[in-house]
Amino acid sequence: MSRHVIVTGASRGIGAAVAQFFISEGDAVVALSRSGSAPQGCAMSLAVDVASSESVNEAVKTAVAANGPVDVLIANAGITRDGLAMRMSDEQWRAVLGTNLDGAFYCARAVIPSMIRARSGRIIFMGSVSPFYGVPGQANYAAAKAGLVGLARSLAREVASRSITVNVVAPGFIETEMTAELGSTSDEMTALIPMGHMGSVADIAGVVGFLASNPASYITGQVLAVDGGLAMGL
Ligand code: NDP
Is the pLDDT of residue 183 over 80? Predict the structure, then answer.
């Protein structure tokens, strides 16, 4: 049966691969991003800044009116604004927390009522191994991604009795535009990965797809690292 899937940050990178995964499963995918661009085959694509709760509420209302209750939310939109903490501006801090943490919360809050009515649902937050590893220059990003774990686990307890699961996928170092900005730091990071290479967007999409599938219905409140072994044991 076709599911109603909302994917934020679906215009490129991991989000686009996740959207494509669900499209290939025959699901109705609603893609949200600031640019509003989306992979071919999406049921709907909306230009939304997830850091604005009003815009998120409006978008989810539009998606539900067109496709019915939301079955799966992938809160994937994310940005980096790197810099050493002592020189980090308020704007750098707020921008990253606003998109990566506030945005994920706004999206989850907006979809939960329709999931509760349907007595089922899957919420998947795109985290990172960065809060477990510690990354110099990414205090804002690591704090936001750490926040997603507390958010997911608290929400998971709030909605578990309605058969709604809430989990975090924590990618390691994945080839996208976000990591392309790193230049030579990229080689240093790759050297730390036990599997010896960066991950692909398909590696993440497959795991997201699993967490949204029936065999994963008893998994909730978990953080699943997909990182080639980078952060194991942390
Ligand atoms: P990209 O920079 O390639 O894509 C980011 C996506 O988020 C784009 O679709 C962008 O679209 C969207 N986006 C950014 N800000 C907003 C906003 N305020 N509102 C709505 N959409 C927004 O990143 P990746 O694909 O690499 O990363 C995706 C997620 O995975 C992020 O949460 C990231 O933190 C996480 N991650 C990535 C890793 C990696 O190695 N690549 C490692 C660990 C985690 P647009 O510009 O059109 O708004």
Answer: no
